[in-house]
Amino acid sequence: MTTQPADWVDRLADEVIADAQRRAELGQRDPAAPIVCASGLSPSGPIHLGNLREVMVPHLVADEIRRRGIACEHLISWDDYDRFRKVPGAIPGIDAWNAHIGKPLSSVPPPPGSPHASWAEHFRVAMTEALSALGVPFRGISQTRMYTTGSYRDQVLLAMRQRAVIDEVLGRYRTKAAPGAPAQASATADVGNAQEAEQAQGSGAATEDDGSGTGGAYYPFKPYCTACGTDFTTVIEYDEDTTELIYRCAGPGRDGNPGECGNTGVMHLDRDFHGKLVWKVDWPMRWAYEGVIFEPSGVDHQSPGSSYVVGGQVVQEVFGGWQPIGPMYAFVGISGMAKMSSSKGGVPTPADALSIMEPHVLRWLYARRRPHQSFTVAFDHEILRLYDEWDALERKVASGKGQPGDVAAYARSVGTAQGELRRTPRPLPYRALCSVVDLTGSHEAQMLRILTSMDPRIESLDQVGPRLELARTWVQSQADPSDRTVVLTEPDVALLTSLPADQREALDSLARQLDENWTLDGLTALVYGIPKVQAGLSLAEKKLSPEVKAAQRAFFATLYQLLLGADTGPRLPTLLLCLGPHRVRRLIGAAVDSADQAQG
Ligand SMILES: [Zn+2]
C-alpha cells in the first residue's frame, strides 16, 4: 500500500497485513491461512455498548482486510468457562444465584423466565442477534467447549510443565501497580465511575487471580471441583509424569454454606477436563493456539502488569507464539441513560441502541472515532443531532464533497465486504419523524398524510421504515417530557390581541398562503419568506440583513408561542404540516374560511 491511509481502520489494516507477511516470512505462520483478528467477550451479564467496541474494532479491521481481497477471519471467544464472579445487582429475582458463585458461567442457570439453557447462553444469544443485525460476521468459540472436550489438553500440560517460568514472568510484575486499576481516567470523562467499573468488570477477567497452590507452590491451572462445581479449589499436588493433580475444595456444601464442600479430588490433566488455565496464561495460550494477529483490549487489560503486557511474555516464553497487535480502546459513554435498560442490568446493550437507531448509524459511532478516543451513544435528545449529522454526511458523500476520512467511515457504516446493510428507502429526518409520531399520537393514517406532504413519493409507511419505528420507540420510551410537543387546544387570545401590526400582518399573510404551499418545501419557503417580503425583498432573496434575520426569529417565536405556548419546538414547517391548515389558522387568530368551517 503506497497510498495515504484514509482513516484509522485503513492504517491498522496496513499494519496487520504487514505483520502477517513478516510472520509468514519468518516461518511462523502459513502464508495461505486467513489472517486472524480476535475479540473476547464474557457473557457474565448483559453485554453492553462498551463491550461492543471489543468486537467493532477488530470487525472493522477484518472487514477492511477482506475488502482488499485478503482472507481474514474474525474470532469471538465466548469466555463462558470463566467463573460466575458476582450476582449483578440490576437483574431482579436472582438473589438465590449467590449459590452459583465460582461455577463456570455455562453451568449457572439463566435468569428467571429465560428460554436459554444457561446464564452464559442467555447473554451470548442476545449479543449474537445484535451482531447479526449490525452485519458483523464472526466465528464464535465457546471456551467451555474447548476446555471440556480437551482441545487445549497439550497447552494445559505444557503450562503445567512450564509453571516455574510462568511464575517467574508473573513475579516480574507482582510488585508493580495492581492490575485492573483503570489507567486512563482522562479517556472516560463522560462516563460515571460506577459505569466505568461495570464496563471493566464486564470486559473480561482482568481482576482474576494469577493462580496459586499450597505452601508457596505455583500452578497456573484452576480445577472446577467435581463435587460442587465451583473453583474455590487449591492445587495440593501435581505429578508431571502421570499428570495426576490433587486439589482441595473450599466451595459451598449442599446447604450452600461457604467452605463446607471439603472435597479432596483427583484428576488427570491428560484426560479429565474440569478446569482452566488462569486468565493471564489462558489469554496468551489462545493467541498462540489461534495464531491471532490482531486483538484490541480495554484499558483494564493494558495497565502495567496487566494481562496484555504479561501475556506478551508468556506467549513467547511458554507457548512459542507472539503477542498480537493490540491497541487500547477507550470507554463508551451513554448520554440519557437508557430508561429501557434499567430492568435488564443497568447498562444499555447494543439491542437497546438498535431499538432507536439504524444499524449503520450505530456502526458509524464505532467507525468514526479512533480506538483510544472515547465517545457517547445518545439515548437522549442528542440522538436528533446525531441523525442530522448522519444525514448531512450522506448528502456530502453523495455530492462527492466528503473528506477521505468521512467517506471511509461512511462506507464502513453502510456495508461490509459482504454487501450493504438494509436501509430506510425514504429516510426523512429522524427529528421530523419524532415530531410526526409525537403530534399524531402515532396515528397511522394521519402520519401517512403528513409524511406524504413532506415527500410526495411516499405512498406507504413501509417506505419510511425502519427509521419511523425507531423514532416511534424513541419518542415512547426515551423522550423526556420536555422533548414532547404539546399543542394549545385554544387560541391564546391575550397574546393575539397584543401583537404589533407587522406581526398581525405576517400571520394573515401566512394564513392566506397556507393551502397553496402545503408541502414541506413550500411551507419552509413561506415561513422564511414572509419576513423578507415585509422588508421589501423577494421570497427567494438569499442575502439577508441582520434586521431581516431578526424579524424572521421574532416571527418564528410568535408562531411557537401561538401554537405551543413555548419558546421553541419542532421545525416550523414540520409542525405546521402535523397540525393541518385548519388548526393553524384557528390558533394564529386568522379568519376561518368556509372550507374550514365545513371541516370544523
Ligand atoms: Zn467443591
What does this structure look like?
The chain is of the alpha/beta class. It folds into four domains: 8-208 and 277-329, HUPs (Rossmann fold), CATH 3.40.50; 225-273; 339-482, Arc Repressor Mutant, subunit A (Orthogonal Bundle); 493-599, Arc Repressor Mutant, subunit A. It is 44% helix and 10% strand. The chain is built from 23 helices and 15 strands. It has helices at residues 8-25, 49-67, 119-133, 143-148, 153-161, 163-174, 193-202, 279-290, 307-317, 350-354, 359-367, 382-398, 404-414, 430-440, 444-454, 467-477, 493-498, 501-513, 520-534, 546-564, 572-579, 581-587, 594-599, and strands spanning 35-41, 72-78, 139-142, 221-223, 233-239, 244-249, 264-268, 275-277, 292-294, 297-298, 328-329, 332-335, 375-378, 415-416, 419-420. The strands form six sheets. It has a four-stranded parallel sheet with strand order 3-2-1-9. Strand 1, helix 2 and strand 2 form a beta-alpha-beta unit. Helix 1 crosses helix 2 (49-67), helix 8 packs across helix 9 and helix 11 packs across helix 13. The longest helix has 19 residues, at 49-67. The chain is elongated, with a radius of gyration of 30 Å. The termini are far apart. The relative contact order is 0.09. Mean pLDDT is 89; it is low at 176-207 and 594-600. The structure holds zinc ion.
